[in-house]
Amino acid sequence: MEEDVKEGASDKYSLRGRVFSRLREDILNGKYEEGIELREIAIGEELGVSRTPVREAFRQLELEGLIRIIPNKGAYVVGISDKDVRDIYILRSRLEGLAARWAVDHITKEQMEEMEENVYLAKFHIEKGHTEQMFELDNRFHELLYEASGSKILEHQLKDYHQYVLRIRKKTLSSATRGPQSNTEHEAILEAIKNKNHDDAERLAHEHMINAYKNMIDNGLIKPD
Amino acid sequence: MEEDVKEGASDKYSLRGRVFSRLREDILNGKYEEGIELREIAIGEELGVSRTPVREAFRQLELEGLIRIIPNKGAYVVGISDKDVRDIYILRSRLEGLAARWAVDHITKEQMEEMEENVYLAKFHIEKGHTEQMFELDNRFHELLYEASGSKILEHQLKDYHQYVLRIRKKTLSSATRGPQSNTEHEAILEAIKNKNHDDAERLAHEHMINAYKNMIDNGLIKPD
DNA sequence: CCTTGTATTATTGTATACAATCCTTGGAGC
DNA sequence: GCTCCAAGGATTGTATACAATAATACAAGG
């Protein structure tokens, strides 16, 4: 029964939690475009709730930087610029390297086993071209790495960024060449951790992000500098 | 009149903003100890407001990781463990290095001038042993560095961490030896940026954090590993 | 025609009322 | 005395009512 213990602030079973998750997803997926104004009543009616949970969700979204609230005026969708995406990938490249380094000493047997299963299963879905499953497995691999780092702070931070660039990542992975290469890199990172090689783990995780970054630019998903 | 444009989510002039700032400060300063339960009504009465702004502030504090809300039960202060502080310093060491590197290319003339003034003025207050001013100048130096990086993402992140370890930093800087050394290191970072030396800037900023970290441990302010 | 001031309206900010949930406490049964 | 359960109280979750603020429209004066 130890389910849902982590549930940071999403809280699936409260109205506020659902509103928050829904709005975040809608913003990241581009349903609400940048600059658009979100009205409490309208959102409330759309989701069938009153203003109270909507307001609380707004406050959280603001803290996440997804909307900007101007007092007594309104809430405006901020969106993510190409520069933000580039910056996040550079930050991630450094922090994921650190996560991999720390994971060498802190990964549990269960986490290791799930990682191995993850990489193995991914091969299958890549073969079949199941993009949705590839996406989910990629998500989970990185989350596992964050959790295995043994640092709540680092885990929290990387999960945030991971969420943040969700939209762009969906496009990236469906690319025919990046999918397989990404999983090969996952495998290499996993091996380094298994062999307790700190430097390799950090370097490979770092390069993994840099490669993803380059891929985005080469495929024109975001514009360079 | 371009004041208060950044005001992320604090919003000094709304009740919610004040409640949020106040509670964060009280938690970080140790007024509310770890594990203590915060009741909406009690906090509201203490600050003379109703539950609504208190609840909104709670939701934000949860997202910042300072309290943990268990649905239908209560809000509990999380506090910062020694491990969290150690982790943050390691993360900061890497990210501040990056900030310094980026600052080389993005710092404005005004920022550069304020940095120079900052380092110069700090010498005076160190000489006189004015700990409060030393603290403020140290704060400002780092904020300037973050702003000069030219990356909203990185700036936001580092400011967060900076706030987070506020309590411990106050103690550190008042140490007779660390104060002067810290400012000397600031000066070196500034020089590297001025000379447009990316590698030095990154290395020095990185080392600056590592030194602060070691100092904390050597002085027993937090326990090692 | 343009500017300015004011009234109206829409929207957010805050307080309060009501509903749902959890915890405590006390008593019945054994 | 111990266990279990039920009732009451306390606390959070949600909805709604009211207050404050900002946007808009329109009329009066230049």
Write out key terms for the chains shown:
225 residues, 10 helices, globular, disordered N terminus, DNA-binding
- Secondary structure: helix percent of chain A: over 70%
Name the strands of the widest sheet of chain A in spatial order. 1-3-2
Largest beta-sheet characterization of chain A: 3 strands, antiparallel
Strand content of chain A: under 5%
Order of helices and strands of chain A: HEHHEEHHHHHHH
Looking at the chains present, what oligomeric state does this protein adopt? homodimer
Largest interface by Cβ-Cβ < 8 Å: A-B, 32 and 32 residues
Q: In summary, what is this structure?
A:
Chain A has helices at residues 15-28, 40-47, 51-63, 82-106, 109-128, 131-148, 152-164, 166-174, 178-194, 198-218, and strands at 37-38, 67-70, 74-77. The first copy, chain A, has 225 residues and is mostly helical. The structure holds a DNA duplex (30 and 30 nucleotides).
Describe this structure in words.
- The structure is a homodimer of 225-residue chains.
- By secondary structure, chain A is mostly helical.
- Helix content of chain A is 70%, strand content 4%.
- The first copy, chain A, is built from 10 helices and 3 strands; from the N terminus they run αβααββααααααα.
- In chain A, strands 1-3-2 form a 3-stranded antiparallel sheet.
- In chain A, a hairpin with a 3-residue loop joins strand 2 and strand 3 (74-77).
- Chains A and B meet through helix 3, helix 4 and helix 7 of A and helix 3, helix 4 and helix 7 of B.
- Chain A binds a DNA duplex (30 and 30 nucleotides) through residues 14-16, 39-41, 49-53, 55, 69, 71-75.
